[in-house]
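2024-03-11 09:14:02 DEBUG pipeline.ingest accepted 1 chain
2024-03-11 09:14:02 DEBUG pipeline.ingest length=411
2024-03-11 09:14:03 DEBUG pipeline.predict start
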Amino acid sequence: MSLPLLRASEHLHEVKYEIRGALARRAEQLEREGHEIVKLNIGNPGAFGFRMPGSMRVAVVENLHQADPYSHQKGIFPAREAVVMQQQNRGVMDVSAEDVFIGNGVSELIMISMRALLNPGDEVLVPSPDYPLWTASVVIHGAKAVHYPCRPENGFVPDPAEVARLVTDRTRAIVVINPNNPTGAVYSRQVLEGLAAIAEKHHLVFCADEIYDEMLYGDAEFIPTAPLAKHTLCLTFAGLSKIYRACGLRVGWLVFSGEREHARDYIQAVELLASLRLCSNVPGQYAVQTALGGHQSIFDLTRPGGRLHATRGALLEAVKNSRFLSLVAPRGAMYGFVRILTERLGGAAAGFSDQAFALDLLERKHVLVAPGSSFNVPYRDHFRVTLLPDAELMADVFGRIESLLEEYAET
């Protein structure tokens, strides 16, 4: 007897997360067949030998005896207070521990914040390209992600005037990812002030994804958003996964700042949802206070002589020497968003697909990348790589990519 087809919820029909999608599943199959796959599709520092600072590990171990019970739904006080002090050091003086929520990574907090805010038919302004969880968190609740362009010819930096034209009476929030994933763009104060002014004028919730806040290269400067958005509700997201190389701890935080009195019902809804999941991972929370204080080891990795700096240099050199690639140099975060110059591929340019290219690269060269279309862009000639392998492996990977593109051009 056959059972009736069990279909997934309709809420998921427009939800996509190709970073861990069909290509990643095919990579797992190839690994089971004995192939060694270079996985550049996801920013997972521990998979490339990075380790969280030892002081954070000690903080977790020494407090395990306190980690058996649930914590408060917002998180343990020392972690929230450490986040408050970081915000105060950045000029956000009107926050307290009551304004901070600790979550199972920023991902959980993004989903909670959107679930508490959105109704079917609402709209959220989301950058294109974006980190696809943002689009997913909007559409899964029946709302619409309106993508504002961050154009390659403008260094992937948005134009606030262009963003302003997309606001309608259904717009509830605007999302900013700075430093940006997937492009590595770092926004200037002028651009952030322009976006904050849009949020303030239209009373939008300003969502600032700052998970890569201190991962910068060269003369790039990180400008925190919260001090610029004082006259609307601002939500700042950050965590331990990237700057502190502790993805597996699953610790992120959300800070409410700016105007809050009018948003009490919404903030209480966020707390309700936080309560329904009881609390976030308790052992990992004990690493927050240690992480945010003292020496910031990320700077040792991003300055000249550091591993991330060297790998970024290898990426830039490989693209410079390529016949087929171009790149807006990443100024922050841990990714390169690389363009394929399809016009140089001859007959292979017709109908070129970033998805098909990524699958071909995986099958023939055993390199896994994320197709650019995974990041909600209208073009199909980009791919994203992470800067986490060492410089030698990055050079080898781009040798394989160049070889594949040479084969395309020759045929």
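2024-03-11 09:14:41 DEBUG pipeline.report The mean pLDDT is 95.
2024-03-11 09:14:41 DEBUG pipeline.predict end
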